[in-house]
Every structure is written in C-alpha cells, then in structure tokens.
Design goal:
Length: 499
C-alpha cells in the first residue's frame, strides 16, 4: 500500500468513513463506528458481494441466520472447546497479549551467556525496540552488555519464566510474562431470566455455522441441487486479545461467507480443482471491485498447518500498510461441519441425489471474507495523491460500483434561479437510483477537491450553456477530463459505470 496507516486512519476520521467507538468516553478498544461515507462504502461492498455471489449466479441462495443461537451449535462445531488463542499476561503492567503475535529474541550477555528473552508486539521498529529491551533486561539482571540478540519466532521454544516483555517500546522497561494459556474468543451472554449456567449463550464468532445448521431447511424448501452454495452476510464477534491495526482486527466485525456444497470425491485432482476454482473466483472479485492486483497474493496453508478436518486452505493476502496479511480465507472443509451437527443433534445431514438416488453428506468449500478487511483493502488501494494544474490533491480512486457518492451535482453559481432549479432537478433524477451529493458552496475547484477526497467518480456542473442547450459538464475524477453530455446520456452513463 502506498500510504502509512496513520494517513488512512486520519482520512477516515476527517471525512467521516470510520470513527473510534465510544470516543467521547475515551474509546472502547476493538470497536468502531462507520460514518456517513463509511456506511455507504460498506453497504456497496456488501451489495457487490451479494449481487456477484448470489443474485448473478444460478447455484447460490442467501440466508440470514440469528446472531445468538443454541449453545449446542458451538459445542458441536468445536468452538467451545477449541476456539481460542494462546494468551500471556505481563505480570507488572497487567497487559494481555496474543502469544503468537509477539516477537521473541533470545538475549545473551557480553560474554555470550544466556540471560533470558525479550518479546514485544510486532511493529516497524521491532528490532530497535528489542535491542533496547535486551539492554534493560541485562541491567535488571545485573549482567554485562552489550546484549546479543537472536530472533526466536516460536513461543514454545522459550521458558516463560525467563521472558521479559516490553509492552511499550517507548518505556523500554521489561516486564515478566506468565506462561501462555488458552483464551476462548467467544463472547458470552445469557438468555432468559435464569442467571445460572443453563442460560449461557454465545454471540456467534462466525456466520458459517448458521448455514450448516440450516442446510436441510434450505434443501427441503428450495429447488437447489448439489453442487450449490448458501451465502450469508452478517455480524460476528470475537473477544480478540489484542485488537489492532485499525479495523483489520476488531472485536465486532462483519463477514461475507459462502458454503459451497459439493459431492464428495476422493480423487485429489478433482477436489483440488474445485477448491482452486473458488480461489480464482474470489481473487477476480476483489480485483473487480477495485482492489489493486499488485497488492494481492495467495498463500496456501502447508499440510501441517491445516485444521485436522480441512483438505486445503488458501488465504487471499493483501499488502496492508502494516504488512501482508489475510484478507480472505478459502477452505475446503470436507464433510466435517455437517457430520458434527448430524451426530450432535441426531438429525441426518444426508443429501439424496434425485437422479441416482445416491445418499451422501456433501463436502464444502468455504470462501470467507471480512467486510471490514475488504473495506480497508479497498481504501488502501484507492488512496492516491497527485498534482492537477500545479495543485496537490488527495483522492480516493474508488471503483464507481463501491464509491460512497456516485455523482456530485454543482450549480455553477448560486444566484441564478434557473441554474439552481435545473441543478436541483438533475440531482433529484439521479437520486432515484444513486447516492448523490449536491454542492453549491465555494468555487468549483474547491467543490471538485471535496468530491475527490470522498472518492466520488463523477461531478456534473450546471452552467449558463445548460440553459441554452440542456447539456452539463461531466468531469472525471481520475483524469479530471471534462466533456458535455445531455441529462439522458449522463443518467445512462452513471448507471452503466456503477454496475
Ligand atoms: P486471523 O488469522 O487474522 O485471526 P482467521 O483465520 O481467524 O483470521 P477466519 O476465522 O478464517 O479468520 O475468518 C474469516 C475472515 O473473517 C477473515 O479472513 C477476515 O477477513 C475476517 N475476520 C476474522 N477475524 C476478524 C477480526 N477480528 N476483525 C475483522 N475481521 C476478521
């Protein structure tokens, strides 16, 4: 990505894309509010996904399942027992960290004798901070420096009693870490008036299980035939130990998930090809909504990193300003989920092939992407700065399909009633189909600049010539080229561009 995270965060705040949640009460870590432009961008991303994955396909149907459901679902799916991350605490500062997000270095004193370990959150100046922490650790242990550092990736390699943690590279003061322990990421709540254990329920940590538990309902209430998919967009909640990197890892987020049910096959070539086809489809989708292909890559999980039931998993990665990280996961989950729910509920998940009468539990391919991560990738791809007529501008080159505002309508002057009237009329006409802005304040150049920063792809100006021949000036955000078009041409052009 061309920009620092801080540029993106401040643009989001300044222009009303994203605000930190509960800001007037000093914030609430891991939660965010989406402002007027943000909610439009989010909705457009979700709409594009729904159109492309559901409405424009003949083999996928939609679903909207409840956020809170029977806790038995999460027992059967394995989330109650195993949806956890390794957590460590700093004994002094009481801060908590996700162990696998810490960077470790082994420290030796000047004579090369082992002294302990330092660890800190991954970050740009990690090496420098580690060196500083190592020095402080030696001082604390009254050993001689200079510290010798050797990086250590795997948490399990080190003895927790020898850790020194640097919560903040600024302080440089080492703390001591507890041993790692599992921390379940599901948020608990209670349902009904009882407050004993029987009322415990969970906010869903993914939308997928609502799809699996409705598999039979969808099969018997619609005309779907394997292979087919069920798609869902909805909120998910995870009590992340260290929410960070803005909206990349938050505690409340939204997922767009699709479970594509296929006939099981043990022919490796076949199921690998089915999985690869979905990875390709999803990669093309991201590029299609304006994510920069140069910042996208695919990472295949190594067999030893796969969940025990998964046949394959590929992540679509994006080069965020803080590094290359997962944007979307695309897993071949075999028949695990349907089988788990069938044995826990006692209700069969078998599908009967109408023609051959063969019965089987389908396998499933799951492309799963976070709306918020997609939002961030779209924003990072669109962020640009250039110089037009000697003047620097910041612009967001959103694809018209996802742009929060599609058109800015400007009357050239405020004090001409005919021009104002004609601009209002055009604005109303465009508003029937699109989110459109009307701006009569300030000089035209400034109005263009405001729209450029909001990522509005087109601006139209109603001027004196409009009163003569009805045409308006259409200005393109990226090239800044202008041409005259009739209102009918404009309406058709915008509709086409935003499809
Ligand atoms: P990570 O390894 O980054 O925690 P994950 O592999 O646990 O992610 P999945 O369980 O595969 O993620 O969830 C599917 C998608 O949901 C992810 O690719 C991501 O886009 C999104 N997602 C998951 N956790 C979060 C989160 N805490 N905040 C925002 N989006 C998330």
């Amino acid at each position: 990505c061309k920009k620092d995270m801080s540029d993106i965060v401040s643009l989001c705040k300044r222009r009303g894309f994203v605000y930190p949640s509960s800001e007037i009460y000093s914030g609430f870590a891991g939660f965010f509010d989406y402002g007027p432009l943000g909610v439009e961008l989010r909705n457009n991303i979700k709409r594009a996904w729904w159109e492309d994955m559901v409405q424009r396909r003949d083999d996928v149907v939609g679903l909207d399942s409840s956020i809170i459901a029977s806790p038995r679902i999460w027992e059967a799916s394995g989330h109650v027992a195993g949806f956890s991350d390794p957590m460590v605490d700093c004994k002094e500062s009481k801060q908590r960290f996700r162990a696998d997000q810490l960077f470790f270095a082994k420290v030796a004193d000047g004579a090369g004798a082992h002294a302990g370990y330092v660890s800190l959150l991954e970050g740009a100046d990690m090496e420098a901070a580690a060196a500083k922490a190592a020095g402080a650790l030696l001082k604390k242990l009254k050993r001689d420096g200079p510290a010798q550092l050797s990086p250590l990736r795997d948490f399990t390699e080190a003895d927790p009693s020898e850790y020194a943690l640097v919560p903040s590279p600024a302080t440089g003061e080492p703390g001591t870490l507890t041993a790692p322990r599992d921390f379940n990421l599901m948020f608990q709540t209670s349902v009904g008036a009882m407050t004993d254990g029987s009322s415990v329920a969970y906010l869903r940590p993914e939308t997928a299980q609502g799809i699996f538990t409705n598999f039979k309902n969808v099969v018997s209430s619609t005309r779907v035939k394997v292979p087919f998919g069920i798609a869902q967009i909805g909120k998910a909640f995870r009590n992340e130990i260290t929410p960070r990197n803005f909206i990349f890892r938050s505690r409340e987020f939204e997922q767009m998930e699709l479970e594509y049910f296929i006939k099981p096959t043990d022919v490796e070539e076949e199921w690998r090809a089915q999985h690869a086809a979905w990875v390709e489809t999803r990669l093309a989708w991201h590029i299609g909504i304006g994510i920069d292909p140069a910042l996208l890559s695919i990472e295949q999980h190594k067999p030893d990193k796969l969940a025990h039931y998964a046949r394959a998993c590929s992540d679509i990665m994006f080069k965020f300003p803080f590094g290359v990280s997962e944007l979307e996961g695309c897993a071949h989950r075999g028949g695990y989920d349907l089988t788990q729910h069938a044995s826990a509920s006692g209700k069969s998940a078998e599908y009967t092939d109408e023609e051959t009468k063969a019965k089987y539990v389908p396998h499933v391919i799951e492309p799963s992407v976070g709306v918020d991560r997609c939002f961030l990738a779209v924003l990072c791809s669109a962020y640009a700065e250039d110089v037009v007529n000697g003047e620097a501008r910041t612009l967001l080159r959103f694809h018209p399909r996802v742009a929060p505002i599609k058109v800015g309508v400007f009357p050239l002057v405020k004090n001409n009633e005919q021009i104002m009237e004609s601009a209002r009329e055009l604005h109303k006409r465009l508003q029937r189909r699109h989110n459109v802005a009307f701006d009569a304040a300030g000089n035209i150049g400034r109005r263009y600049r405001r729209m450029d920063e909001a990522g509005t792809p087109f601006c139209v100006t109603v001027d004196f010539q409009t009163l003569e021949d009805g045409t308006v000036t259409l200005r393109d955000r990226d090239s800044t080229a202008q041409r005259r078009v009739s209102p009918d041409e404009l309406v058709a052009f915008v509709a086409d561009a935003c499809e």
